[in-house]
Design goal:
Layout (H helix, E strand, L loop, with lengths): L9 H12 L3 H14 L4 E7 L5 E6 L6 H6 L27 H7 L2 E7 L6 E7 L2 E8 L4 E7 L6 H5 L4 H18 L4 E6 L2 E6 L4 H9 L7 E7 L4 E7 L11 E5 L3 E2 L2 H10 L12 E6 L5 E2 L10 E2 L2 H18 L47 H13 L29 H4 L4 E4 L3 E5 L3 E6 H19 L4 E11 L2 H9 L1 H7 L2 E5 L3 E8 L7 H15 L4 H16 L9 H11 L15 E5 H9 L1
Helix pairs in contact: 1-4, 2-6, 6-7, 8-9, 12-16, 12-17, 15-16
Length: 609
């Protein structure tokens, strides 16, 4: 039997590695930004064109590389971060695999300009598909500039799997935020299609969070701080009253590295137990410092998941730290068993030395057994006023006896309500289901899912036929959001206007609405926008039509009648008639059954068995 196992060519092996490291343009952004930070940069610029499909460029003022290092950096498993296997368990840098640049160069055109501070000339390298086509000395500033062009040029299938520009830009911005939040002392600048979108000056952690998400977030933050032998915790959590229906800004950083960890997230949610309404989530920015040898970062290609040696201890410390922080700032009630309540002084007495004696006015001549004296004039006037009530004026042209009063014969029908006289066609069960009798049997309708379908088709009709109507607001409504959410709102502003929303402005801090669709309540709009933004982020639509569809689904879900709402017979019948007037009444916009029928034969079988 001939041998069938052989070594893969380098270009194929690099493309396989690129499939793990470079999933989309945001993956390239993450790797290049982390390399710039490892290089000791204090100022980093990120330039994006066409959502990273045409250009991703990172310019830094770090240490730079020599000509030999620049050439070697594109080889697989070439790194300056580790030298032995033991170094994997004592990592303080972000990149260490030596796969980033090699993987990126395997699927894109890469141009590198770099120069160390102690050299007069730098190195200019051009590489595509892991083949170096150009290398020369060049005059360039200290640091490195890496430009990645035409991503996935040699893998058309991977390029076709990329989403729309707006979706890919959101992923790029997410990575940019994660890196910039980890290093507030570094200046970051973000350019999109040659225009400056965001500039972050060196600052402290709180200022960096405010710079990224807007000034409104500052009032929501509660500082968290704790130091122990196994972990140091710092950062911020949001106050319970600012929680959101959907998961908002939630960030974990371990040793200056963004991670995702469901176990630690559960610890945070446990700390907010009984402080949040069901279905609401807090925001948090938590920075954990642990000894490097107690974690394993090398378990995931993108290094966003790590393994802890003592997760249970970290869980308990994190939970108690957040609880203590909320209680310390009077956000949550706490019990202080060492406090003597008897020693508390009322607040309005804290600056007083002696208590004032209350003054009481007493009439020493007052006799409770002495009858009150009434003057003769007073008695006469009172008598005259009482007699006047029973005297009719001679000039009265309409005596009381001549006034005709329209009367109706009193009978039992006056006391019968309409609901008692009209036989009900529908019934509500547990404020969740509507039951109605039809010719073939009984139909059970989920009121929430049915109303979602009704609103969904109604909104689609308004958008496609341009038949939306608005109700003008007496006073403009100001809704504050974070900057990423406001940027997302600008993308879908035209579609929202076709639904009946009228925008006064979209600033860096809030949305100002001057008109809203008819039958929408102002109090529900904040939650509706939050759910809408979250739905668009998670659905990652590929086309404009699917984005519209996602938006309409989210709005219909937000404003649909909730389970637990009591409906009168007229409202129940309106839901039933509206549902069966839809083009697709059987399923909700999210594919769940809205109703099912139980025939009389099936009901009879229940009694026959």
């Amino acid at each position: 039997m001939p041998d069938i196992i052989h070594l893969l060519p380098d270009n194929v092996a690099n493309q396989i590695a690129a499939g793990e490291v470079v999933q989309r343009p945001a993956s390239v952004v993450k790797e290049l930004l982390e390399n710039a930070i490892d290089a000791g940069a204090t100022e980093i610029k990120l330039l994006i064109k066409d959502a990273g499909k045409t250009l991703i460029q990172v310019i830094d003022n770090g240490h730079g590389m020599s000509a030999t290092d620049a050439r070697l950096s594109f080889e697989r498993h070439a790194t300056s971060k580790i030298k032995s296997a033991e170094d994997l368990f004592d990592l303080t840098t972000k990149g260490f695999r030596g796969e980033a640049l090699a993987s990126i160069a395997a699927v894109a055109h890469v141009e590198l300009k770099t120069k160390p501070e102690n050299q007069e000339l730098g190195t200019h390298i051009k590489i595509a598909g892991n083949e170096i086509s150009y290398q020369e000395f060049i005059a360039t500033p200290k640091g490195s500039s890496i430009a990645v062009k035409n991503l996935f040029f040699n893998i058309p299938a991977r390029r076709n799997f990329l989403k729309s520009n707006s979706v890919e830009l959101r992923h790029i911005l997410d990575e940019f935020h994660r890196v910039s939040l980890t290093h507030p002392s570094i200046a970051f600048t973000y350019y999109n299609n040659d225009s400056e979108s965001l500039r972050l000056e060196p600052s402290n952690l709180r200022q960096r969070i405010v710079s990224v998400f807007g000034k409104k977030i500052n009032e929501k933050l509660v500082p968290i701080q704790e130091q122990t032998d196994i972990i140091n915790i710092s950062g911020f959590v949001s106050k319970p009253e600012f929680s959101k229906k959907k998961r908002g800004e939630q960030f974990f950083f371990v040793n200056n590295r963004f991670i995702k960890n469901g176990y630690l997230h559960h610890a945070v949610m446990n700390a907010f137990d009984e402080l949040l309404a069901p279905g609401y989530y807090p925001s948090y920015f938590l920075y954990l410092e642990v000894p490097p040898h107690t974690i394993d970062i090398n378990i995931h290609p993108t290094k966003t998941e790590i393994k802890f040696d003592n997760e249970q201890a970290l869980y308990a410390i994190l939970r108690s730290t957040i609880k203590h922080g909320l209680g310390q700032y009077n956000v949550a009630p706490i019990l202080d068993f060492n406090k003597d309540a008897n020693l508390d002084i009322p607040y309005h007495y804290k600056d007083k030395t002696t208590a004032e004696t209350p003054k009481i006015n007493v009439d020493p001549q007052f006799n409770p057994f002495k009858a009150p004296q009434i003057s003769p004039n007073t008695s006469k006037n009172q008598k005259a006023s009482w007699e006047a009530l029973y005297n009719q004026s001679d000039s009265d042209s309409s005596p009381l006896s001549q006034i005709e009063v329209e009367a109706e014969e009193v009978n039992q029908s006056l006391f019968d309500t309409q609901e008692d006289t009209v036989q009900a066609k529908t019934y509500q069960v547990r404020r969740k289901y509507i039951v109605s009798v039809i010719k073939s049997g009984v139909v059970f309708i989920n009121q929430n899912l049915a109303h979602q379908r009704i609103l969904y088709e109604d909104l689609l009709t308004k958008m496609t036929l341009d038949n939306s109507s608005s109700q003008q607001l007496l006073f403009p409504l100001n809704l504050p959001f974070s900057r990423p959410e406001l940027a997302l709102c600008e993308e879908i502003q035209e579609e929202l206007e076709s639904l009946g929303f009228q925008f006064g402005s979209i600033s860096e801090e809030s949305i100002v609405l001057t008109g809203i669709p008819v039958n929408m309540k102002q109090g529900d709009l904040k939650q509706m926008f939050e759910e809408l933004f979250e739905s668009i982020k998670n659905q990652v639509p590929e086309t404009n039509f699917s984005q519209l569809d996602t938006m309409v689904k989210s709005i219909a879900k937000s404003f649909a009648i909730k389970n637990g709402t009591k409906l009168n017979p007229a409202e129940q019948e309106e839901i039933v008639e509206g549902l069966f007037s839809c083009k697709e009444p059987s399923y909700s916009p999210f594919g769940k059954k809205t109703f099912f029928t139980l025939s009389f034969d099936e009901i009879q079988l229940k009694f026959d068995h």
